[in-house]
Specification:
Layout (H helix, E strand, L loop, with lengths): L1 H21 L4 E7 L6 E5 L2 H6 L8 E4 L8 E3 L10 E5 L1 E4 L14 E3 L5 E4 L11 E5 L7 E8 L6 E10 L6 E14 L2 E5 L1 E8 L3 E6 L9 E8 L9 E3 L12 E4 L6 E7 L4 E10 L7 E12 L6 E2 L3 E7 L3 E6 L9 E6 L3 E5 L7 E4 L11 H12 L6 E5 L3 E2 L15 H30 L1
Parallel strand pairs: 2-28
Antiparallel strand pairs: 1-27, 1-28, 1-29, 2-26, 3-27, 4-26, 5-16, 6-9, 7-8, 9-15, 10-14, 10-16, 11-12, 11-15, 12-13, 17-25, 18-24, 19-23, 19-25, 20-21, 20-24, 21-22
């Protein structure tokens, strides 16, 4: 009987603790995991979540387990998405093996098209000289080269050769890229060791590349093709846009736009209602009583054309994300007609949490009292990425429908606690004054009686 009472008391205490924690947040979203067996999850914040956040640093965004207890979580920057590296076969031309020791002017013996591509390289090997050097035409590439791959005949006798790699844009002036690289094709019994790839120390953006042997080849290389490995292009950023409505303009024509959330704004696009051009000053602030801070002064905004042929000023890029809720546009000269459209671009942030405790998990946001303590999530992610490969990412957990908790009451700062120490000191001081006053009054009465 006593044991059951203890269990009931523990359950009541736990329920009261969960209720108290929920009373500190404005709203809650259930999280639906893609993989229920995952050890870590990522949550992409939605506009609805941003609209409930109170802290400028997003400290009031937490994840709780099925018992309402916070789990380790932290905001982690998503790695930039990159396309897979591509290979392209390039035209190549044989050169004398000692071309690097000559004047280096290959343009004099070459035919070059108007676009810079090589049509022909006139080379005749005197006295049966082997064409040990290779000229690679990379003028048609639209991305830097990170590596070269040589392909030779399968009947190629075993060999090992070291090359010096150089680059040029005019076939006259050459700059060093790599002092020594090696390719080889060695055999021993049924075993074979092949190295075809020539890794460059960094992306090389040049029209032409030259491979010059560092020593005379004992076995001529029966080269068949040269491939260039191109630097992977970074995927374009998928910007999300907020379009706040302007308030009526003041006497100067200034327009104030208010957002409904703490979005991490990085791009600002100002679109005119029609053809036109003008200079504007863009400012920002977080609250009505805050000072305006200049974002861009004398910023030129223009627009001409319509539909697919429209030409507009490019979006303004900020050096760091800004979470202020108010933006103001002031024209240099009075602007007539419809107000411009202000579009605020941002990239949704990702909160990563560890699957600690029992599911289901939920995200809570919006509190002027509670604050999340960032957990050391990065080392765990590094360990999981080392185990599963560099492309590994935490499983996704998608926020569901919002459930109100404490609402607007959670966004009110907690009342300042009373300074009982100061009050106690003042009380002791007053008590001392009363005691001294009492002694003085008793002395006066004694003298009067005497």
């Amino acid at each position: 009987m006593i044991r059951s009472r203890h269990v009931v008391v523990a359950c009541l205490l736990g329920a009261s603790a969960v209720a108290a924690a929920q009373a500190e947040f404005a709203a809650q979203w259930p999280l639906a995991p893609d993989d229920p067996s995952a050890s870590a999850y990522r949550v992409e914040l939605t506009p609805e979540i941003y609209a409930r956040v109170w802290s400028p640093a997003l400290r009031d965004v937490v994840v709780v387990d099925g018992d309402g207890r916070p789990v380790p979580a932290a905001f982690v920057a998503e790695p930039a998405a990159r396309a897979a590296a591509t290979r392209r076969e390039l035209p190549w031309f044989p050169l004398p093996g000692d071309v690097g020791n000559r004047d280096g002017d290959i343009a004099a013996i070459s035919e070059i098209d108007a676009d810079g591509s090589l049509r022909r390289v006139q080379f005749r090997a005197p006295g049966g000289e082997a064409a040990g050097a290779v000229l690679v035409d990379a003028s048609a590439l639209d991305a830097p080269v990170t590596a070269l791959a040589l392909r030779w005949d399968e009947t190629q006798p075993p060999f090992e050769q070291a090359y010096r790699v150089e680059a040029s844009d005019d076939l006259r002036q050459w700059r060093g890229v790599n002092d020594e690289v090696r390719v080889l094709d060695l055999r021993r019994d049924a075993q074979r060791l092949v190295e075809r790839r020539i890794a460059l120390p960094g992306p090389v953006d040049a029209r032409y590349l030259r491979l010059t042997p560092l020593r005379a080849a004992t076995v001529p290389l029966r080269l068949q093709a040269v491939e260039a490995e191109l630097a992977p292009a970074q995927e374009p950023v998928a910007w999300h846009w907020q379009v706040p409505a302007p308030q009526p303009a003041d006497a100067r024509g200034a327009l104030v736009y208010r957002t409904d959330g703490r979005f991490p704004v990085e791009r600002i696009d100002i679109a005119l209602a029609g053809n036109g051009t003008g200079r504007w000053t863009l400012e920002r602030r977080d609250a009505d009583d805050g000072p305006w801070r200049i974002v861009a002064s004398d910023h030129v905004v223009f627009q001409a054309g319509a539909g697919a042929d429209v030409r507009r000023a490019p979006p303004l890029a900020l050096s760091a994300p800004v979470r202020d809720r108010q933006w103001r546009l002031t024209p240099a000269t009075p602007s007539h007609g419809a107000p411009p459209t202000l579009r605020l671009g941002y990239r949704p942030e990702t909160l990563v949490f560890v699957a600690e405790g029992r599911p289901p998990y939920a995200l809570q946001a919006g509190s002027a009292r509670a604050a999340r303590t960032d957990a050391p999530v990065a080392p765990l992610l590094d360990a999981l990425r080392a185990q599963h490969g560099p492309a590994w990412r935490p499983a996704a957990a998608v926020p569901g429908a919002m459930t109100p908790l404490a609402g607007e009451a959670a966004l009110q700062p907690a009342p300042q606690p009373r300074d009982w120490k100061t009050w106690t000191l003042w009380g002791v001081l007053l008590l001392g004054v009363l005691v001294v006053g009492g002694f003085a009054l008793s002395l006066l009465r004694g003298r009067t009686a005497a």
